Amino acid sequence: MIMPRGQPLLLPVNPGFIAGTLVLALMFNLLPLGRGIWMPDMLLPVLAIWGVREPQRVGMGWAFVLGLCMDVHQAALLGQHAIVYALVMFGVGLLRRRMAWFNLLEQAVQMLPLFVAADVLQLLMRMLMRGGFPGWGALTPGLWEALLWPLLGWLLLLPQRQPLERDDNRPL
Q1: d(CA 85, CA 103)
Q2: pTM
Q3: Could you write out the three-class secondary structure of the chain?
Q4: Among 84, 112, 156, 162, which has the highest number of CB atoms less than 10 A from its own CB?
Q5: Distances in Å between the alpha carbon of 98 and those of 72, 115, 150, 158?
């Protein structure tokens, strides 16, 4: 694939780094921060970023397993987060080729409807099981996740931007 002008070539991603970032995002979600309905889910954007950049390593299977971990932690309906995470990864798979042409800010705009759709789906599942409408604040995490996308993308791709060694004869 021809890279868009101005985007640097990235080094291969270390699988240990991917696993470490997913574990860190999961641990952040497990922190007792008084999980309000407005709090963003840090694991979902990290999964989505790796789904865009490394789809052969992070896919719907990992999203489903990590979603089950979130379901157990929050004592939610078993499979609620798992289904939402897997559907978001499916959406990421559909958008992946288009996302390669955009910078991180433009990617955030592309991901906003996907994150809001994930929140709407979780809201509908909660309403079906518990019966009450928690309020419109339940739809704000998708906005926060889209706003965090450029920062998380920059941080997660930072190790891949480092040159291996300086070589004056290397053409790239």
Answers
A1: 23
A2: 0.84
A3: CCCCCCCCCCCCCCHHHHHHHHHHHHHHHHCCCCCCCCCCCCHHHHHHHHHHHCCCCCCHHHHHHHHHHHHHHHCCCCCHHHHHHHHHHHHHHHHHHHHCCCCHHHHHHHHHHHHHHHHHHHHHHHHHHHCCCCCHHHHHHHHHHHHHHHHHHHHHHCHHHCCCCCCCCCCC
A4: 84
A5: 34, 17, 16, 21
CA distance 37 to 58: 27
The chain-wide mean pLDDT, for the chain, equals 85
pLDDT at 70 over 70: yes
- Backbone Cα Rg of the chain: 17
Closest CA to 71 of 88, 51, 57, 85: 85
Give pLDDT, residue 7: 62
The answer to whether 152 and 46 are in contact (CB under 8 A) is yes
Amino acid type, 145: E
